[in-house]
Amino acid sequence: MPSTADIVIVGGGVVGSSVAYHLREAGCRGRIVVIERDDTYARASSNLAMGGIRQQFTLEANVRMVQYSVDFYRDLDRRAVTDTFHRVNFHQRGYLFLADAACAARLTRRYDAMRSVGAHVEHISSDEIRRRLPDASLDDIEFGVFGPEDGYANPKAVLRAMRKIAEDSGAEYIRGDVRTIHRSNNRLTGVSFGTESIDTPVVVNAAGPFAGQLAGLAGVALPVFPVRQQLFRCDLPRRWEYRFPMVIDPSGLHWRHDDPRVPGQPDRIVLAKTNHDETRGENFTCDDARWPAEFYPSLVRRMPSFAGLTPAEGWAGLYEMTPDHNPIIGTHPDADGLFLANGFSGHGLMMAPATGKAIADLITVGTSRTIDVRDFAFDRFRTGTLLDDDATL
Ligand SMILES: Cc1cc2nc3c(=O)[nH]c(=O)nc-3n(C[C@H](O)[C@H](O)[C@H](O)COP(=O)(O)OP(=O)(O)OC[C@H]3O[C@@H](n4cnc5c(N)ncnc54)[C@H](O)[C@@H]3O)c2cc1C
């Protein structure tokens, strides 16, 4: 006999958990079930992310999303009531884009666009950059674009805290791999996993990079495809004298501080450099050859004092890309009862709180009152009105 639920969320990563939590906050007292196939989250993007949180976007909707999230993350350690080791530690140390001659014009246009849609961002001189990065080599840098409210958090702790506040609020987590989504004509009626089924009128797709596959189970198309992104972590040779913001080098290399979580651990940095030629697919292999070929030369060019660093670890996870690199949030026109919280294209950790709020409002009152997510509707792929945000690449 199938059981019943008012709402089933497939995927218990940061996005699914945020949806569950915000549904309760919105007053939804019915049965909310989150189905997650892997409680270790070994392949979940939330577990493998870098942790960057920035409001530096040129599309107003993206800026508003992250501004909501910034407030949420500031308060998450208090809400989750967690121990010291598992603290989210949202450090608002800023996000610093460095402009050299080749990208100065683009970053200036981007800065103007970001300001015009209300992003809190500053145009800073080389001297101001030097105060934040005293041992950086800045001979080719013309200026910086700095988001003082931005920063980074520990992604594993964010994932844990989000799930905890969702469970504390009464959402039920079930381990299962959803293999069937049931429909009656155009309307969803339930899901099956293993030998179990749950009847429900509402299914939220929060399957991260696997969202396209999940939509396929409901018989609808969703343009979300997985693309590998790779990170390295390095121990620094000593306690560093200052904390890094997220630094984005003109070469595309970016890095942030990774503070010790227990006494005696070294200071570390986490680094990324997007490979724009990466082929689509579920590839979790860490390509170690990228360190000496691409990461290290860019790092030491900018930070000569990092000469000799080698990675303590490297790993890969999946970005959940859409054709215009912007999220898909809302309903699906071909399946009543299917809600989409997908396609964050590498920005889902920073957008998870706002997405949870928006989806909860859409389900409970039919419109997203706090955060306007109409730009992110699925229909744009049918009408050809794709979004253009210069800072989502
Ligand atoms: C290397 C890397 C670095 C990143 N850095 C950043 C960053 O700095 N800042 C940022 O904002 N974002 C970053 N991202 C992106 C961010 O991690 C994702 O956008 C975000 O985690 C998406 O969350 P999610 O909950 O939708 O997906 P996930 O965390 O992937 O969770 C989806 C869950 O759905 C489950 N699932 C899927 N299908 C099924 C099914 N059929 N049945 C049951 N369960 C299912 C999966 O097991 C998984 O746990 C990064 C991503 C990667 C890979």
Search tags:
binds flavin-adenine dinucleotide; 2 domains; single chain; 393 residues; globular; FAD/NAD(P)-binding domain; alpha/beta; eight-stranded mixed sheet; 10 helices; D-Amino Acid Oxidase, Chain A, domain 2; six-stranded mixed sheet
Q: Your description of this structure?
A:
This protein has 393 residues and is of the alpha/beta class. It folds into two domains: 179 residues, FAD/NAD(P)-binding domain (3-Layer(bba) Sandwich), CATH 3.50.50.60; 151 residues, 2-Layer Sandwich (D-Amino Acid Oxidase, Chain A, domain 2). Helix content is 29%, strand content 26%. It has ten helices and 20 strands. The strands form four sheets. It has an eight-stranded mixed beta sheet. Strands 9-3-2-13-20-19 form a six-stranded mixed beta sheet, with helices on both faces. Strand 19 and strand 20 form a beta hairpin. Helix 1 packs parallel to helix 6 and helix 3 packs across helix 9. The radius of gyration is 21 Å and the shape is globular. It starts with a strand and ends in a 10-residue tail after the last helix. 48% of the residues are buried. The model has no long low-confidence stretch (mean pLDDT 97). The site of flavin-adenine dinucleotide has 40 residues, from helix 1, strand 3, helix 2, strand 14 and strand 18.
